[in-house]
Q: What sequence folds into this?
């Protein structure tokens, strides 16, 4: 059935507590500029969606006009903090009991809106229609539930990496997140509300209800209430999780004495649900009956879902609805059933934001004129509650007593750029950016969580220092500290809260939190200073390279990139050294480098390749500001250009640590071009191009890159991808398979990680790879040892 | 139960300890297979009224009979299907016993035959389905009547005790049995009654039984039937159906649980799937919800109840049809969905709950069956199993569901001997080992 868990009010009705005061900083944020409301009222939870704009401070760099007197300034470029307005989607979920309180709150805080209607969906929409219209003065405009659900589902699958997961109760990590597949269609959505609807989704606008069943969540609830005299759905689930179904169900072994070997049916299989209760003179425990009922319903739904999946030849099956929503017990039984009936051919998939689908869909219906589907959106880790942030085991009364507010939030930032796959990924559907999944690797998780917590003081200090002219920066930085520490604590308990936990997600979460408290670019001044210093050495560095023989130069260039990469404020070992010893120089860095053979060393193959014909075009993902980009990367780029290879330099769209941003790199490149005819010619002849990656992360997700970058890469027939730095080449993409030659260069600046990889501090990873189909022909190969 | 010879069909009040013969078995020493080499151990016994008529017809085919006799197993001929809830027993009563045979027939055999054929109820719970009896059946060259007997599986010990008391093991030592109980109780048969079971797969037996019964029942009441106009309650009538060219067919066996088989030919079939929501679930839930204790009681209650008070219908949610998805208002949106509400829980009757349970289980079997039929590309569905016994409600519902949801593509067929095919198949295995 289409309806998602509508339930008569008295079954879940808790008196509306109007005495609650809501904390405005934490929920319903940015209401001042909110517009386009949508609401999805289910049997027990209300989901509200709105669009708003957020004013952010952003750091902008602007080149000084060096023709005027300002050239006398010792600064390379000017940094200014400006206000920028970005779009954000807010979704908030709360118990129906709070609906009136929430509506009042919204009314009081909604100021600058010209909104006239609120889109509504869900079974409770009609019931609260009058209340909403009276409180908010908005006209309630009802939308079809199923349409909203599907629209919402498409949206999260497209925009939120790690949205879908497989549930494995007994695995090291219960949640196994799926990598975002760019092709989300076709799929099957099995919505288990009071009944079950099975919907086949073929494209953004094409979907069909291909079947369903009347045996659903309502059956579990209704029958469960009759059998156990337990009224609440979650209490029934709790009962079920404690019961033994074998005392109620007739198993194969109850009939056969063992397994039914001829058909391969094991003895523990249920032959007849409730088969043992067909007697008047035996008592059964509530727990056992609830468990048996849960199995019966889950198995039945799983079986039907499999039959429909098979008939329509679909292998992606997502489950949702109130029966599933955040309940490990039902996710487990459904998963078990699907595995059983398809012998593992189909996996039961669940969604992190399943509860929001209706609200998201209703919102999208109302926002069609803003073309939300034209943009890419990103989950804001700072403003979103993680998966299971609100324990389903706690009922609202308990929560009210404990004083916690059971609000769950999701915030999605509209990204300025549309993000797509790097066209050079060998297999986009199996690409996993992250090298280590900390959700599964408990030891690594332990270490990195500790590491990020340890580094927090330093980050706070630097954030304050970056805004010396603002006296309240310290207070803001303190809020940042609390927020990020709280996130780390949450992740310690629930590593799966935001999808797979990775070093990247920890870094990104920190960036989101910094932005949240208006520390858009704590490193801007440090980067400026470093860039300035490094630039002074550029010509000298290039001259000394030119004095070397060809072969010596190739090696020196590589060592230059690697030594430059040692300069990294992101890595703790280095930021310690940099802060205590500012004189730590480029030459010193070279001396610190591991001597060959490196930890990962395919330099010989690379050198051999350099002796061959030049590459058509190299895409270079750069890393840090200062020495790294100016003295390490630029000479390397220069060499490539001299060989006749076009170069595309990809840098971050927004700031992250001391990584060079695209706007900074624009200025730097101009300045270098002024000193270096090779770079100048490259720019003039359009053989050296600067593009932005679309990212603001110290790591790199090759499946979410700026659309323009992808276009340039394709147009220029890029045949070499160079990825530099620990964040981009080790924490992420270490195992990334590309369809062209690739070179990954990094210095390991973390002793724990070095240890893990079998190396030591400042070990070098130099990984040059050629895909099998691009390997040189055998006679060529004979030349290389 | 015990086979203690009560003749009233409705008798289930008398204590089961009244087994007539309590004497201990006297021929323990008889080695297994003692009678195997004695072709005429089906000794003559006082034959029934009809026996003399048949003797003449027998003599015409004497020659054929002689050759058959060599491979023919000794009497008595039983086929047994021990399911999760019920034991189904078919018994072939020879009516063409010659005077010579009658004289040779051992007393034990005679007494068993007399006991089974002169009663219609055995102990508290054993029932002979007289209306299903197949008369004048020729099996392996012998003519006689095929009897259909059932009793609950939990009374199997009493049955074994009776077998022991009646010295069943002295007659012959192999009993063809199928169903899970053939495996589960194999050792009980051996230790309690000195009987060696010949275990057979239940699905093999089921198919063999279905095909056989359908082939022998050609005159009189048709074995196979369907419901004409299932979507119109006023015009819905039972009609005979000839299952001449039955393949491919989907065979849905609804016992305690459900098995769904796709049958492509006599020897080619596969189990497509099954569901644990079957007859056992209906009865089990009814017992818990209404306090009833028998299938008949549960059905009786169901026939008087109204499921729409328990279930949430499409129209309860949408006020009418859900046109966007072509769902009619009367369709059940959520089985037991109204029971989420406390007031409604308090306002429904036991009869309503029994009816809703029946409708839920039946519709679910219908929907899984329909999906299997689509996946296997089969248009004919035959429903069997004891869940359908005296259960016209479910049969009509299945007929309706098949026709309505497939837009007339699927036909639901039913067989009169509902739950006995496995037992028949076991008997056939005794006579014609495959």
A:
């Amino acid at each position: 059935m289409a309806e998602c868990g509508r339930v008569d009010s008295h079954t879940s009705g808790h008196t509306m507590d109007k005495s609650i005061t809501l904390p405005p900083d934490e929920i319903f944020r940015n209401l001042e500029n909110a517009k386009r409301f949508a609401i999805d009222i289910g049997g027990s939870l209300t989901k509200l969606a709105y669009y708003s704009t957020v004013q952010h401070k952003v750091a902008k760099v602007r080149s000084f006009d060096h023709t005027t007197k300002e050239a006398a300034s010792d600064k390379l470029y000017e940094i200014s903090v400006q206000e920028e307005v970005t779009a954000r989607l807010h979704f908030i979920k709360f118990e129906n009991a709070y609906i009136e309180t929430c509506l009042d709150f919204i009314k009081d805080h909604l100021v600058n809106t010209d909104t006239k209607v609120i889109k509504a969906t869900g079974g409770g929409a009609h019931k609260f229609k009058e209340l909403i219209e009276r409180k908010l003065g908005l006209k309630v405009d009802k939308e079809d539930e199923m349409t909203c659900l599907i629209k919402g589902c498409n949206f999260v699958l497209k925009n939120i990496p790690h949205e879908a997961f497989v549930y494995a109760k007994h695995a090291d990590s219960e949640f196994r997140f799926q990598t975002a597949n760019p092709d989300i269609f076709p799929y099957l959505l099995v919505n288990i509300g009071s009944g079950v609807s099975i919907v086949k989704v073929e494209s953004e606008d094409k979907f069909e209800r291909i079947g369903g069943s009347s045996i659903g969540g309502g059956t579990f609830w209704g029958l469960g209430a009759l059998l156990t005299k337990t009224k609440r759905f979650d209490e029934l689930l709790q009962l079920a999780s404690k019961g033994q179904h074998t005392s109620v169900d007739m198993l194969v072994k109850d009939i056969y004495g063992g397994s039914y070997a001829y058909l391969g049916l094991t003895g523990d299989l249920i032959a007849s649900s409730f088969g043992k209760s067909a007697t008047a003179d035996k008592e059964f425990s509530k727990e056992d009956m609830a468990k048996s009922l849960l199995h019966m319903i889950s198995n039945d739904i799983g079986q039907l879902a499999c039959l429909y999946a098979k008939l329509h030849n679909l292998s992606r099956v997502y489950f949702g609805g109130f029966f599933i929503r955040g309940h490990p017990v039902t996710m487990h039984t459904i998963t078990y059933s699907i595995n059983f009936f398809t012998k593992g051919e189909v996996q039961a998939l669940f969604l992190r934001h399943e509860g929001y689908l209706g609200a998201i869909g209703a919102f999208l219906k109302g926002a069609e004129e803003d073309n939300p589907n034209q943009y890419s959106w990103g989950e804001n880790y700072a403003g979103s509650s993680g998966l299971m942030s609100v324990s389903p085991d706690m009922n609202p009364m308990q929560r009210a007593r404990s004083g916690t507010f059971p609000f769950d939030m999701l915030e999605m930032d509209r990204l300025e750029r549309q993000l797509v796959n790097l066209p050079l990924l060998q297999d986009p559907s199996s690409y996993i950016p992250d090298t280590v999944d900390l959700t599964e690797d408990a030891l690594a998780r332990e270490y990195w969580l500790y590491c990020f917590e340890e580094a927090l003081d330093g980050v706070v200090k630097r954030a304050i220092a970056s805004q010396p002219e603002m006296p309240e920066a310290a207070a803001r930085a303190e809020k940042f500290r609390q927020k990020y520490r709280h996130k780390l604590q949450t992740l310690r308990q629930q590593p799966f809260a935001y999808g797979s936990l990775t070093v990247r997600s920890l870094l990104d979460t920190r960036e989101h939190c910094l932005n949240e408290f208006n520390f858009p670019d704590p490193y801007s001044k440090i980067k400026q200073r470093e860039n300035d210093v490094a630039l002074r050495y550029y010509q000298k560095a290039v001259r000394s390279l030119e004095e070397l023989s060809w072969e010596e130069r190739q090696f020196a260039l590589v060592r230059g990139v690697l030594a430059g990469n040692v300069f990294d404020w992101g890595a703790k070992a280095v930021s310690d050294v940099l802060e205590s010893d500012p004189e730590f120089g480029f030459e010193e860095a070279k001396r610190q480098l591991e001597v060959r053979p490196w930890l990962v060393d395919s330099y010989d193959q690379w050198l051999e390749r350099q002796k061959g014909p030049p590459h058509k075009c190299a895409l270079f993902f750069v890393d840090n500001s200062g020495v790294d980009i100016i003295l390490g990367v630029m000479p390397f780029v220069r060499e490539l250009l001299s060989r006749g290879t076009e170069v595309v330099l990809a840098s971050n769209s927004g700031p992250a640590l001391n990584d060079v941003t695209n706007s900074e790199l624009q200025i730097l490149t101009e300045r270098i071009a002024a000193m270096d005819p090779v770079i100048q010619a490259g720019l003039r002849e359009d053989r050296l191009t600067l593009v932005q990656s679309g990212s603001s992360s110290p790591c790199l997700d090759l499946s979410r890159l700026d659309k323009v970058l992808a276009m340039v890469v394709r147009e220029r027939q890029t045949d070499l991808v160079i990825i530099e730095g620990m964040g981009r080449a080790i924490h992420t993409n270490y195992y990334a398979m590309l369809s062209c030659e690739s070179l990954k260069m990094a210095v390991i600046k973390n002793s724990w990680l070095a240890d893990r990889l079998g190396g030591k501090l400042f070990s070098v990873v130099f990984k040059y790879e050629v895909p099998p189909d691009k390997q040189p022909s055998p006679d060529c190969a004979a030349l290389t040892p | 139960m015990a086979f203690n010879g009560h003749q009233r069909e409705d008798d289930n009040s008398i204590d089961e300890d009244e087994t007539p013969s309590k004497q201990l078995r006297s021929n323990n020493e008889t080695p297994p297979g003692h009678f195997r080499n004695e072709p005429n151990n089906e000794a003559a016994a006082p034959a029934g009224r009809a026996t003399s008529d048949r003797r003449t017809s027998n003599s015409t085919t004497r020659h054929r009979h002689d050759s058959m006799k060599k491979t023919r197993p000794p009497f008595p001929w039983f086929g047994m299907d021990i399911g999760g809830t019920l034991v189904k027993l078919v018994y072939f009563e020879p009516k063409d016993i010659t005077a010579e045979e009658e004289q040779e027939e051992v007393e034990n055999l005679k007494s068993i035959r007399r006991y089974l054929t002169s009663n219609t109820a055995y102990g508290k719970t054993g029932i002979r389905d007289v209306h299903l009896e197949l008369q004048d059946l020729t099996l392996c060259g012998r003519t006689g009547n095929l009897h259909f007997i059932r009793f609950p599986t939990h009374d199997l010990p009493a049955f074994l005790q009776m077998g022991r008391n009646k010295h069943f093991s002295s007659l012959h030592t192999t009993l063809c049995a199928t169903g899970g109980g053939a495996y589960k109780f194999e050792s009980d048969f051996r230790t309690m009654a000195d009987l060696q079971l010949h275990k057979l797969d239940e699905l093999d037996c089921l198919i063999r039984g279905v095909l056989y019964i359908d082939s022998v029942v050609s005159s009189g009441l048709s074995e196979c039937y369907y419901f004409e106009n299932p979507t119109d309650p006023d015009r819905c009538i039972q009609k005979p159906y000839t299952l001449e060219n039955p393949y491919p067919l989907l065979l849905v066996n609804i016992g305690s649980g459900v098995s769904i088989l796709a049958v492509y030919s006599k020897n080619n079939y596969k189990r497509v799937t099954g569901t644990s929501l079957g007859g056992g679930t209906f009865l089990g839930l009814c017992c818990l919800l209404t306090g009833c204790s028998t299938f008949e009681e549960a059905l009786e209650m169901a026939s008087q109840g109204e499921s729409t008070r328990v279930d949430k219908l499409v129209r309860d949610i949408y006020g009418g049809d859900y046109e966007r998805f072509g769902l009619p208002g009367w369709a059940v949106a959520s089985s037991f969905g109204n029971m989420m509400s406390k007031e409604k829980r308090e306002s429904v009757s036991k009869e309503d709950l029994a009816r809703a349970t029946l409708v839920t289980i039946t519709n679910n079997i219908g929907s899984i069956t329909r999906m299997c039929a689509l996946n296997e590309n089969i248009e004919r569905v035959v429903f069997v199993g004891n869940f359908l016994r005296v259960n016209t409600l479910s049969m009509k519902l299945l007929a309706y569901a098949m026709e309505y949801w497939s837009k007339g593509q699927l036909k639901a067929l039913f067989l009169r001997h509902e739950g006995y095919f496995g037992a028949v198949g076991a008997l056939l295995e005794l006579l014609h080992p495959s």
In short: The longest strand of chain B covers residues 142-152. Chain B is about 35% helix and 20% strand. Chain B touches chain A through 66 residues (CB under 8 Å).
